[in-house]
């Protein structure tokens, strides 16, 4: 496998998993906010379903997405099967419960008195949400880290709905499987290292944001 | 009479069947500091939360400057008020950011931020904390920042929930004095919640005593102290000694009351045979080794049970058929050589004894 090909595969991995995480944030955060502020019958069930979704096996997700987008499936006319879009959708389904569930848990960790005090100082509903997001940012970054970690490393779903088509839907994980099967351990190891480096770089970046000011409790004179 | 700044009518809030708040009428005058005074769990904080629209009552009407609050004007009226919760919680960020947060919430123009910040900082002496995180400050300093972020908003109504709670005596007195000065200076109409008598008497223009969700008496500190409306109010205002008795005779308002083998003289309008409760302040009780000849009408020969060191005085607990408490100075303890087991004379003027229509006294005696 030449370096150009590896670069292309790496880029597609990043693009597919990045888009899936981004979409899951767009959908998961508002859901978590809604669940935090609103009480309605069946809320517990919704939260339980989200929490269950956090442990969804990627192959199961792959199977259902394949059933939906298969030519004879309900959304078959969209002709998304074996496209990067289908891979994004599958990874979105894996990432979404992680973002929604961990964000909701993070919101619930915020001292409710902080929101009450914000309200009493004059915060509107929208400003209250901003306060909540700011006060729970550590937990939300943890949600993003968990979601990105889950999708960048999964192979079952992308393989089933993407098909590992060379130059089109091949990503790092599916390529590693392919190269190993063919006995091309050299390129498999290279791509495994790239996957680890990619995962580490993204997480390093997210962790640096998350941990800013996290150790405020530490007495500086200890140093 | 001028229109009250804030008026409450028939306000009720229930928890199941139990009423948490049941306030028939409540009025707040412009510029005054009303202290809502009562024991823990009497509904003071809940009342403040209702007034700030953080909690919705089951029924009742609230009028701000004559305008009845409803769901359409709730947001606008709530911006006239600031409530500081009992626990000073802060947003992440520096003290400066925390002070400015309320201004941002209320959409106050950037150009005004600087002048308001400078004013608040100088009033509350916050110069050295401004760029620090509130987490790094001591309890007292945090409380100071907490107060400042209310004053910086220059509200028309300031609602404070136990703002001096949990501070050491020295810092508390200092912050209370600062608050007293700043509040006078700004003239903001204030309701301050406390369960501490000392705070109520020092800071209040008027005191409203709250018990079990009801306001049982409203008046100046002087009125509440000298003419408490019920035995509960009298106990809250420091008249700790409660004894039950029966009126033996009445002579133009001067009663002779029989209680636990003793005879007590007191002023009251009860008639012969009626059961009464007697209260008097431990400060009003004097101790002597020999029974002196004075105008004091009530003298009891009592045995000292216990001597407790209190803030600045000693509290002597005596037994003379009923329990009696007296505050005495250190020099009195030394001069009279007071010690548990010793018998002394305890005196209290008839005019210092309050009488109440009789009732169960057990709950007070067990305290």
Plain-language structure description:
The complex is a heterodimer of chains A (223) and B (367). Chain A has 223 residues and is mainly alpha-helical. Chain A has a single domain, classed as MetI-like fold. Chain A is built from ten helices and no strands. The mean pLDDT of chain A is 93. Chain B is globular, with a radius of gyration of 24 Å. Chain B is α+β, with helices and mostly antiparallel strands and 367 residues long. The longest helix of chain B has 18 residues, at 169-186. In chain B, 27% of the residues lie in helices and 35% in strands. Chain B has two domains: 6-235, P-loop containing nucleotide triphosphate hydrolases (Rossmann fold), CATH 3.40.50; 239-365, OB fold (Dihydrolipoamide Acetyltransferase, E2P) (Beta Barrel). In chain B, the strands form four sheets. Chain B has a six-stranded mixed beta sheet with strand order 6-7-8-3-9-10, sandwiched between helices. The two termini of chain B are 42 Å apart. Chain B has helices at residues 44-51, 74-78, 95-105, 110-123, 139-151, 169-186, 197-203, 221-226, 231-236, 330-335, 362-365; strands at 6-15, 18-28, 33-37, 59-64, 67-68, 81-84, 157-161, 189-194, 206-211, 214-219, 241-251, 254-259, 262-267, 275-280, 286-288, 298-309, 314-319, 323-328, 343-348, 354-357. The chains are: A mainly alpha (223), B alpha+beta (367). The A-B interface holds A 111, 113-114, 116-124, 127, 131, 134-135, 213, 216-217 and B 52, 54, 75, 78-79, 81-85, 87, 89-92, 101-102, 104-106, 133, 135-136, 149-150, 153.
